[in-house]
Design a protein that fits this description.
Layout lengths: L4 E6 L4 H15 L3 E8 L14 H19 L3 E7 L9 H15 L3 E4 L10 H16 L21 E6 L18 E4 L4 H10 L7 H11 L2 E9 L24
Parallel strand pairs: 1-2, 1-4, 2-3, 4-5
Antiparallel strand pairs: 5-7, 6-7
Helix pairs in contact: 1-5, 2-5, 3-4
């Protein structure tokens, strides 16, 4: 079994901190190898009260904010795909999938985490796109017939073991029309890493208009992050058809 390793695949700078920062910090502190793929530079990100700035310049600033957050969270490797914010769904899906497959084969993560197929409740087109692309790449990375020739570059096929979607325990009936969340299968206690999560989000200075929303979420659900076990490979003992308590309390359940 490979060393415990985790790769998060998200659309924008700040996704990693707002949605997943506690878990990233927790596993990094445990010695798990952590990596992050960020598909866009967040050029379209506008927080209330943010100073006016050209999209290209904003993207450069947000990438530096992301690097700051990665240092706080202990992320071992950051992989920037360089796509335009709000236009990820317009990119050639095979090209993006290939790029994510390259990262998976290089990082060799046992666990991959991304957004759910409906944008984790927001319906954001970039969230939906990265979910589909990361899911396809999770399976393609282990397929020797996909993207042949990469082993010569040190990127041999690799089968990740578990794919998770970020989700929420909220009643979807109370959400905006069309919002949807995957059911909860896994709850991670991040009480010891909330300070790191908040500090990482504060690195995203241009997005501080969302800080109150982050605090509201912490007040509502406590220091917990929620996931749906979307797929497994080579783990026949893990059942995915049973939802509800008792939930998994470790993304590496069955792998340690």
């Amino acid at each position: 079994m490979d060393r415990l390793s985790l790769l998060a695949v998200f659309a924008h700078p700040d996704d990693e901190s707002f949605a997943f920062g506690g878990s990233l910090a927790k596993y990094a502190a445990e010695g798990v190898r952590t990596g992050l793929v960020t598909a866009t530079a967040g050029q379209a990100g506008r927080s209330p009260g943010a100073y006016p700035i050209a999209p290209e310049e904003l993207g450069l600033i947000r990438v530096e904010e992301l690097r700051c957050a990665c240092r706080v969270l202990g992320v071992g490797s950051l992989h920037l795909l360089g796509y335009k914010d709000n236009h990820l769904s317009e990119a050639d899906p095979e090209v993006v999938e290939h790029a994510i497959v390259n990262v998976i084969r290089a990082v060799r993560p046992l666990v991959v985490v991304t957004f759910g197929p409906d944008g984790s409740g927001s319906g954001h087109p970039d969230y939906r796109a990265i979910s589909q692309l990361a899911t396809a790449a999770f399976f393609a990375a282990g397929d020797e017939a996909k993207y042949p020739g990469q082993p010569d570059a040190g990127l041999a096929p690799f089968r990740g073991r578990k794919l998770y979607y970020l989700t929420s325990p909220v009643d979807t009936a109370s959400q905006p029309q069309g919002a949807s969340f995957s059911p909860v299968t896994t709850v991670i206690d991040v009480a010891d890493h909330v300070d790191a999560k908040l500090a990482a989000f504060r690195c995203h200075r241009t997005q501080m208009g969302d800080y109150p929303r982050l605090m509201e979420r912490l007040a509502q659900y406590g220091p917990r992050e929620f996931f749906f076990l979307a797929a497994t490979q080579d783990l026949p003992s893990i059942r995915q058809d049973v939802l509800g308590p008792p939930y998994e309390d470790d993304l590496f359940a069955g792998l340690r």
